[in-house]
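retry 2 of 3: previous attempt timed out while embedding S-adenosylmethionine. Reduced batch size to 1 and resubmitted. Inputs unchanged:
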Amino acid sequence: MPLCLDEIVIWSRSFNEYINFLALSENDLQKKILAVADGASSFNYEAKIRGYDVTSLDPLYKFSPLEIKEQIIKSCNQIYPQIVKNKNDYNWLYFKSPDHLKEYRMNVMENFLDDFVIKESKSKYIGGEIQNLPFKKMSFDIAIVANFLFLYSDRLDLNFHIQSLTDLLEVANEIRVFPLQGNLQNSPKYIIPVINHFKNLGFLAGVKRVNYHFTKGANKVLIIKKK
Ligand SMILES: C[S@@+](CC[C@H](N)C(=O)[O-])C[C@H]1O[C@@H](n2cnc3c(N)ncnc32)[C@H](O)[C@@H]1O
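retry 2 succeeded.
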């Protein structure tokens, strides 16, 4: 995946979306959470307000707030027309319309930026990549990955997925990933080989239907944990 800011598309989700699409219960939220590829989402910020312990990791955090803000505006100009054009690919329940979605996403990103600029937040936003996790073994209870693995399966192969999930299981007891489908109609499908790989190694691995269904077909979370 790119490290060049220009190639990172920023289109961010909120705390409420995260808890719905990752099926995070109050009990889960009490645990130590690592949010990988967390981008400009407001999950960390909103979790902090509620007293939860979340650390985010993303190559985006190596850039300055101003650079990120410029990329947010560029990304929005790129994505919004695509959403309008492909409106039928989405269920318009959580969001009422493309305009509502755009306003919601921009608010999420403003919340992220407000938190990202403050000195006290520095240790909670780690600039890094999933291939090289800068954490000690079992530093977290749950590692979550939203809108990165599986979504870019046209660019990231099965080996990348298995290696990334293996590395995450070194630093967390449990992993949750959403969504499980690629963003292209003909994206490779990795979910079954991934589940089989981890089951064969003795992990509990499976898919659970979630209470969030915006992109058609994307309503399941992958959960992998130690027995
Ligand atoms: C579509 S965004 C998802 C952001 C957030 N999780 C959400 O759901 O709103 C994908 C994120 O993956 C990040 N990313 C790209 N390459 C990465 C890598 N090698 N390791 C970790 N994150 C990466 C990007 O910077 C970007 O923020």
